[in-house]
């Protein structure tokens, strides 16, 4: 048996042995019952609201008239005029604007979360109202709303009937700042006018024709903002963003959406100022919209009035957390345990992982049924877990806790081209939302690492390349779609550059950051 295989079996055995130190009071084998849900978008700062109130359902007329929109293409804020004629005189008219709500779809179960793709729901809103004159005509001047890009149908509705039809195309636009700076300069690029349909709803970012990652704007109504760092060498570099489903569609002018051509920028790297500091860029802090956050729910929870709270709801491994409980059986022994999982998805069939419990400590409830204790978060999987309080073998109370990703170290900061090095991360999770992390080297996607089988511990094996000087390693969240695999799951297995504002985990409280490091290649 090879040394590599021996080490792997030893690691798995150690994880299983450690987890088995305490029998799990609530064990759940995978897979659990499916709970597919289209996620409600969290309240992300700066997102434009619907362009108007929801329109009442309307019936198409047998003979549909034509609305004239002038101009019929432009950016949000463009002034345009809608004109109708040949309609009944003296009638109130609703100007209905066709748009959509777009969201992510997941299968959220107590033992995991699977990523299932995106969903667009077509809706109409009342953009304005008008009244026909004695000749049955009307004219209204509006500003194009902040909305998804692409073609929007416009209907004149009278007495619940769509009597005339026109349209307006919200065009793409992009901005980037700054335009120059040393290696490691943070660049912000905003791409607006992404559409609500799959083929219009995403983009790719290229840096000197190297793929950086995928860009989406489902929850941000067509406006995607990404941040990435300028990589060397000194001189001009070409940055391109254009419509894509993960990877750029290179012949857009021949496609059914020829307006989705994107934009090209240049950035000038002025100098190599040395290694930038390591940093972790966290996503927007938003309130989750789905209570099922892979925390076992109330599975195995004893009936009663016991409850628990924690001094903090998230942190890296080895964090110290104060636990308070009330409603416990007075003067009775209490065991505190950490619920986690053991297993993996490789060649998964049948039961692939199970919940296990790791001891955190013991105590005794006071005469009034309360308990205060301090526990340490185990060195293990990241993501959502629960701290459980047991009395007499029953789970009396539990409280969720989210383990954040953290940097454990890098093997070396200076090395020659061709030499290997490692980056060590902790707190990688096990669901399809957080079990993997994507890696860019100098803004070029090179691969990913997985933390499920290794209990949240990820050692990325990389090789130094390039000319002498500073070279960047940027790690982004990734939506895992290899096993189990589902149809219609776009954007899988690539860096999600819009992780801060548009990624499904935000609706479940997953705080998945970008992690940024650097090395120096020497002669």
Structure description:
The protein has a domain of 137 residues: Immunoglobulin-like (Sandwich), CATH 2.60.40.1930. Helices cover 3% and strands 49% of the residues. It has one helix and 36 strands.
How many extended strands?
36
Which residues sit in consecutive blocks of at least 5 with pLDDT less than 50?
A: 1-31
CATH class of the domain at 3-30 and 295-403: Mainly Beta
Distance between the termini: 39 Å
Strand proportion: over 45%
What's the average pLDDT?
Answer: 91
CATH topology of the domain at 3-30 and 295-403: Immunoglobulin-like
CATH architecture of the domain at 3-30 and 295-403: Sandwich
How are the SSEs placed, and which strands pair?
Layout: H1 3-19, E1 36-38, E2 59-66, E3 68-70, E4 73-74, E5 79-84, E6 92-109, E7 112-131, E8 138-143, E9 150-158, E10 161-170, E11 173-177, E12 180-181, E13 186-192, E14 202-207, E15 210-216, E16 223-229, E17 235-245, E18 247-248, E19 263-269, E20 279-281, E21 307-310, E22 314-315, E23 320-326, E24 333-343, E25 353-364, E26 371-376, E27 383-391, E28 394-403, E29 406-410, E30 414-416, E31 420-426, E32 436-441, E33 444-450, E34 458-463, E35 469-477, E36 514-522
Parallel strand pairs: 2-10, 4-10, 12-19, 22-28, 30-36
Antiparallel strand pairs: 1-6, 3-5, 5-8, 6-7, 6-9, 9-10, 11-13, 13-16, 14-15, 14-17, 17-18, 17-19, 20-36, 21-23, 23-26, 24-25, 24-27, 27-28, 29-31, 31-34, 32-33, 32-35, 35-36
């Amino acid at each position: 048996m090879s040394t590599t295989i021996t080490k792997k079996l030893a690691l798995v055995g150690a994880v299983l042995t450690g987890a088995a130190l305490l029998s799990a009071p609530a064990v759940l084998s995978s897979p659990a019952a499916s709970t597919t849900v289209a996620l409600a978008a969290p309240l992300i700062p700066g997102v434009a609201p619907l362009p108007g109130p929801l329109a009442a359902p309307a019936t198409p007329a047998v003979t549909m008239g034509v609305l004239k929109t002038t101009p019929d293409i432009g950016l949000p804020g463009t002034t345009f005029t809608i004109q109708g004629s040949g309609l009944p005189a003296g009638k109130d008219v609703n100007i209905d604007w066709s748009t959509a709500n777009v969201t992510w779809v997941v299968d959220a179960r107590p033992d995991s979360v699977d990523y299932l793709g995106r969903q667009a729901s077509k809706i109409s809103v009342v953009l304005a109202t008008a009244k026909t004159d004695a000749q049955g005509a009307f004219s209204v001047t509006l500003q194009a709303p902040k909305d998804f890009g692409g073609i929007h149908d416009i209907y004149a509705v009278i007495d619940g009937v769509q009597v005339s039809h026109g349209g307006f195309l919200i065009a793409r636009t992009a901005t980037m700042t700054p335009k120059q700076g040393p290696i490691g300069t943070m660049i912000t690029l905003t791409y607006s006018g992404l559409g609500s349909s799959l083929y219009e709803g995403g983009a790719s970012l290229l840096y000197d024709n190297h793929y950086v990652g995928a860009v989406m704007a489902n929850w941000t109504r067509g406006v995607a903002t990404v941040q990435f760092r300028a990589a060397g060498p000194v001189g001009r570099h070409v940055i391109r963003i254009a419509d894509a489903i993960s990877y750029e569609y290179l012949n857009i002018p021949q496609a059914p959406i020829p307006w989705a051509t994107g934009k090209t920028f240049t950035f000038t790297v002025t100098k190599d100022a040395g290694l930038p500091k390591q940093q972790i860029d966290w996503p927007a802090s938003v309130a989750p919209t789905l209570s099922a956050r892979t925390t076992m729910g109330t599975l195995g929870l004893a009936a009663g009035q016991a409850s628990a709270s924690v001094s903090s709801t998230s942190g890296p491994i080895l964090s110290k957390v104060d636990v308070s409980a009330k409603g416990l059986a007075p003067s009775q022994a209490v065991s505190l345990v950490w619920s986690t999982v053991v297993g993996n998805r490789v060649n998964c069939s049948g039961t692939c992982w199970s919940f296990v419990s790791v001891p955190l400590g013991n105590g005794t409830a006071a005469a009034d049924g309360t308990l205060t204790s301090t526990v340490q978060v185990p060195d293990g999987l990241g993501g959502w877990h629960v701290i459980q309080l047991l009395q007499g073998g029953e789970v009396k109370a539990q409280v969720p806790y989210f383990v954040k990703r953290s940097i454990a170290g890098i093997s070396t900061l200076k090395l020659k081209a061709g030499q290997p090095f490692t980056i060590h991360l902790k707190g990688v999770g096990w669901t399809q939302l957080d079990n993997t992390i994507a890696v860019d080297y100098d803004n070029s996607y090179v691969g990913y690492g997985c933390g499920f089988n290794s209990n949240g511990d990820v050692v990325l094996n990389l090789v130094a390349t390039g000319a002498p000087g500073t070279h960047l390693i940027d790690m982004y969240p990734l939506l895992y779609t290899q096993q189990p695999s589902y149809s219609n799951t776009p954007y899988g297995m690539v860096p999600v550059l819009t992780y801060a504002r548009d990624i499904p985990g935000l609706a479940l409280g997953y705080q998945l950051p970008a992690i940024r490091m650097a090395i120096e290649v020497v002669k």
